[in-house]
Amino acid sequence: QVQLVESGGGLVQxxxxxxxxxxxxxxTFSSSAMGWFRQAPGMEREFVAAISRSGxxxxxxxxxxxxxxxxxxxxxNTVYLQMNSLKPDDTAVYYCAADPSRRVTASSYSSExxxxxxxxxxxxxx
Length: 126
Description:
The chain is mainly beta. It is built from no helices and eleven strands. The chain has strands spanning 3-7, 10-13, 18-25, 33-39, 46-51, 58-60, 68-73, 78-83, 92-99, 115-116, 120-125. The strands form two sheets. Strands 2, 4, 5, 6, 9, 10 and 11 form a seven-stranded mixed sheet that branches. Strand 4 and strand 5 form a beta hairpin. The termini are far apart.
């Protein structure tokens, strides 16, 4: 069992930055690929970024590539999402998720992730 708790969301002006954190409990963090997803009102949940269990491989949605950076610290059981040059379209609830399948890479499909956090709201004003 893995429990995930996100933090770091808030209100920011367009062009600003935020760093989201996701703290994981349980012994499987270092063997889990981790992902960030987001869901805007009235929209389906969408992939944002993912990182392999070692941190060697990262993946991004085209909409955030070059602006967002995913990283992890396996000694702290924490995954991060650094978000720069934020836009109003980035407004959403952001969720972190864990895939404990021990895959070497990381998936962009939400169905591959077994554990989810409660989400943290990010609001970008224009």
